[in-house]
Amino acid sequence: MTAVVGIIMGSVSDWETMRHAADVLEALNVPHEVKVVSAHRTPRRMVAYAESAADRGLKVIVAGAGGAAHLPGMVASLTLLPVLGVPVQSAALSGKDSLLSIVQMPAGIPVGTLAIGKAGATNAGLLAAAILATTDSDLAGRLQAWRQAQTDAVADSPL
Ligand code: RP5
User: What value of ipTM does the predicted structure carry?
Assistant: First the structure.
């Protein structure tokens, strides 16, 4: 099936984090694609990806990067699709650099920024699904079931 969510990341090393977005979309049966697209190492690949995304059928882009994480903002500047940014935890500053790079967009080009690391990647997948579910009632049902399963899995007591 044609991908409707594009998951991109600045490096293969980001996959350990970004795979959690893919896992959620897999569980919700949302067609998605996964690519390495670096703003500074492959800038032309980034431009081509962002400029072709909507025409190829993508509806939402999830972009993860670490350090000077300009990928989500750069991609958002090149497409009207909603871009969800995931700050990858960096070695030097534990991802605070990634978070501030992604969240502090000047007014005019929005990036929906999630938490640092695994939680952010998971929630980016869930948020992408929620956006798509506004016009896809079958997906809304699957998302509701996912939430219910999460609720059902919470124990009454830690003992
Ligand atoms: C960023 O630099 C990537 O998003 C990654 O988080 C970080 C480190 O990349 P590698 O040196 O591991 O390739 O561009």
Answer: 0.96
